Each structure stands twice: as C-alpha cells, then as structure tokens.
Amino acid sequence: MWRLLIGELYPDAEFPEPAKEALFWRIEENLGLPVPPELVELLRETNGVHNEYGDAVVWPAERIVEDNLAIRAEPDHHELYAPFDDLMFFGDSDMGPQFAYVHTGYGPGIVKWDHETDERRLAVVSLRDYLARCLGQDNDWFR
C-alpha cells in the first residue's frame, strides 16, 4: 500500500529493503513511546523514504532510534528546548525542520519542529497526508 502511494506521488522513488521487525521493539523500548501503526506498516514495506531533493522524508528505523536518543541525551537541549518526551522524530528536511509524531491523549499527530525557535506546530494528522505534502505538488511546505 505505502509503496504504491509513494510511487504515485514520486515516480522516481527508490525503495530500500524493509526494516527488520526487531527494530520496532527497539524503538519502543528505547523511547518509551509506541510506534504508530501507520509508520510500522510503511517501514515493513520500505526502510525509509527520500524525496527528489534527497531529504530523508522518513528515516530508516535505525536512524529513528539513534537520532531520538541523541536529541534526548544532548545536555544543551534541556536548557534550550521544551522536553522531547512525547515526540518521536522520524523525518527531516535538509533545509531545517524536523518532523515528529507527537503522542497526546487524543492519539498521535505529526508536528513540524523548528530547532531555531523550538516552535512545534501540528502539521498533519496522518502519515498519508504527510507524504502527500512532502512528495506531492505541495513539497515546498516541507522545506
């Protein structure tokens, strides 16, 4: 399903091998957050997604763990930013913003985070909408 959608939005997309199942548990165990089912489904089909500019729209599962742990461990981040405990970063633009699932009492949504201002704005409510904006005609929004 995800490969088909991505291929429709970005016909030149390349698809890496699927993520290993054990990585989903590693993400949850290390971050203390559930991996949203739609992200698990995508990573089971392709371990990451890049757009036409080479931006990692969806990181490989290994990077999801590594980058989230790194951002939580950076001592300066505790002084500069609000806590990251309810965020699971999973994609970025080389031009600046990063994207994360935010876990709320109402379910996950996807926020766009600006590391310069610590602004966290709800961007979309589903991975499908996120990919449509990042890979489709509205990809300037992503940058």
From TrEMBL:
SUPFAM superfamilies: SMI1/KNR4-like (SSF160631). Residues 18-133 form the Knr4/Smi1-like domain. It comes from the Bacteria. SMART domains: SMI1_KNR4. It holds the Pfam family SMI1_KNR4. Transmembrane segments: none annotated. Coiled coil: none annotated. Gene3D superfamilies: SMI1/KNR4-like (3.40.1580.10). InterPro entries: Knr4/Smi1-like_dom, Knr4/Smi1-like_sf. This is SUKH superfamily protein.
